[in-house]
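Hi there. Long-time user, first ticket. I'm pasting a complex I've been working with (about 746 residues overall). I'd like to know whether the download I got is complete or cut off, because the file seemed smaller than I expected. Thanks.
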Amino acid sequence: MVLRIGVIGGGQLARMMIAPAVELGIDLRVLAEAEGMSAQLAATAVGDYRDLDTVRAFAQDVDVITFDHEHVPQEVLRALVSEGVAVHPGPDALRFAQDKLEMRERLAELGVPQPDWARVTGIDDLQAFLDDHGGRGVVKTPRGGYDGKGVRVVGAATEASDWFERADGEALLVEELVAFRRELAQQIARRPSGQMVAYPVVETVQRDGVCAEVFAPAPGAGERLVQVAEGIGRRIAEGLGVTGMLAVELFETDDERILVNELAMRPHNSGHWSQDGAVTGQFEQHLRAVADLPLGDASPSAAWATMVNILGGPLDGTFESRFDAAMSAHPDAKIHIYGKDARPGRKVGHINVSGDDLDDIVYTARAVAAHFD
Amino acid sequence: MVLRIGVIGGGQLARMMIAPAVELGIDLRVLAEAEGMSAQLAATAVGDYRDLDTVRAFAQDVDVITFDHEHVPQEVLRALVSEGVAVHPGPDALRFAQDKLEMRERLAELGVPQPDWARVTGIDDLQAFLDDHGGRGVVKTPRGGYDGKGVRVVGAATEASDWFERADGEALLVEELVAFRRELAQQIARRPSGQMVAYPVVETVQRDGVCAEVFAPAPGAGERLVQVAEGIGRRIAEGLGVTGMLAVELFETDDERILVNELAMRPHNSGHWSQDGAVTGQFEQHLRAVADLPLGDASPSAAWATMVNILGGPLDGTFESRFDAAMSAHPDAKIHIYGKDARPGRKVGHINVSGDDLDDIVYTARAVAAHFD
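Hi, the file is complete. Here it is re-exported in full:
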């Protein structure tokens, strides 16, 4: 019997699980939202992940269910689990990735360092928080945001009036506007049986709320930073019962504190470097973790690795027409293309480069990405 | 328009092209011999590669045709080329991989060092050759042999009587029995436009005519050996007009000469280490070469890499049941499983390990492979 792993969602994260699945001899099956999605090659079903019957039918033919995204509703997940389906990460963990207010509350219970935050249900609540935090703050919709959507920096509570109206009585999350020197990310893999493996903490550069570049490991990260970041990651993975890959986005503050910004319970953009820069890439690791197989070595395979995203632009022509110039100038770059239509700002691929000199590889990765942007 | 590459043959070499194709955003399509082949995931057609209509129909939907094996008949290949299909490697190159007598003749013209050989059509011819070469020799059927099949060491011409009978007047090839200290392999990638890239020469260990282990680069290989092996590879790739990956199997003789043993015009078992041990693995390189894209960096990404084949055995149980023990003890091993039924002696997977210490990685790779054999 071949091991069968079912992935709900047909985006690029599911697509990037195909290569390690083929290598390991795992039968990867994808429930895609539509025909022609990024993970089309492995799609064995097309349907609505919010529909229990659709998901249930898909789950019948696999040994474990995992995800390309965190949007499958709790009621669908809980129904599967109650019917004996192995779901990783499970609903009890995923709810903390689905709802930022629940996440903040749970991290507070765990004593994990995070920005000041509050649950606010109206303008007055919010203004009180802002008044206590220098007059500014970050308002977030607890559910459904990604890549900067559902996040707004405000200087007055009235700037969130429309969101309160739309929330219709539901609470919003407000967080202090953290003065950070840079952003980091810590990835942890965790199996159902409890084994954990930590990737090195990396530096991430966001532009317009979207991850643009990653440097691995985080430049200048001393022993203290590495230990603190890994410790936070392990505490969250264990405390929230995460199975599979966990990404913890972190602020490194101007006064050198490490605070948790966001969580993702799946392979994450901050870990794409590991496909070509670590002994075990995050997509293979995720498959091993959700199948409860022993985890792979997460060590870097070179001194430095970097990842630069390709964001779709208004340029004419196809990706393929750009291969020639990019590959010719930079034979050491690893080009990853997601098979998605290019739209301005949309993540449509990324470039990985590894080597001994960080400046060199970052130059290379940016140069190659520029051919495709 | 996405680049579409068609592979004739659905074996493990086609399968191992899937991962780099998905990464590069290439649409890989396979013409498989049957349902359920190793490369099933990418199979878009099932049929007989000896049938022109089948191959022609498959070729209509792709930008370039390449191969999992070298068995597509010349007349089929030539018909495609005459109809304007891009075929790489093309029939003019492939015939030297399809017929060992043609190969020996052409290498002699190119002045490439090789064992003494002769075209023999009967017992008397053969005995004369043996008498001139210490009474022993290696008889080979010019066509159709692989993995030790179609190769016989003889001490008297009469030991090949059955082959002469079956050959029905066609010539056989006889070669001197080379006293070699070890076997090596040199891989070269070559584009239609002429660009070539050389992989480091590797040591290969054969057992029962089948590649068992590979050490990359070849231990103790000094500058002279590296230059000689690469020079031979480049001369053959250019002289035979090879496009795609070329593997040249070499003898390193007791008196330190380098002689060409066999050729393969496709990704080759001796290059599987490069999937995890080189900046650009041979399967990605093959896709780039046949699509006439700039070639990737073929440098090793670690000091040493090794590959140990998994040969199917009579053991009970599934591969997956062995994952646990293998992965648990050796988190740094890269496990490659081909999705084929295990039969004794059949190649069903391989293990790659890279690192700073050759003894360590060979120990690891053998230990992991032993879980699956």
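A couple of notes from our side: Residues 116-175 of chain A form a domain with the Dna Ligase; domain 1 fold (CATH 3.30.1490.20). The interface with chain B takes residues 1-3, 15-16, 18-20, 22-25, 41-42, 197, 275, 279-280, 288, 293-297, 299, 301-302, 318-320, 323-324, 327-328, 331-332, 334-339, 349, 354 of chain A (CB under 8 Å).
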